[in-house]
Amino acid sequence: MNTRPLLTTALNGLDRIGFQLDQYGITGKFNRHNLAAFIMLEQKYLEGEWDSLQAKFDRRRSQVEGVLTAIETRTDPLIKPVISRINQFRGKAGN
What we know:
Helices cover 83% and strands 0% of the residues. It is an all-alpha fold. The protein has a domain at 48-95.
C-alpha cells in the first residue's frame, strides 16, 4: 500500500485548515511544520517515559536477584548437612 499520496493529501488539508484559520484571525500556528514539531516532541517524551520504565524494571530485577542470591547463600550451609545425611542413608557417601 502506497501511503505517500494519502500523507500528501492529509498534509495539504492541514495546511488548508491552517490557512483558513489564519484568514479568520484565529491562529497562524496551525501548519504541517508545527504538527511535525509537536509529533517529534511527543516522541521524545514517550522515549523518555519508556527509558524511565525500563530503568525501574531493571532496578527491581536486580533487587530481586540480590535477595535470591542472599537467600541461596544463607540456606546453602543449612541444606548441605541435610543433603549429606540423606546421601548417607541412601548409601551414597562421598568416598
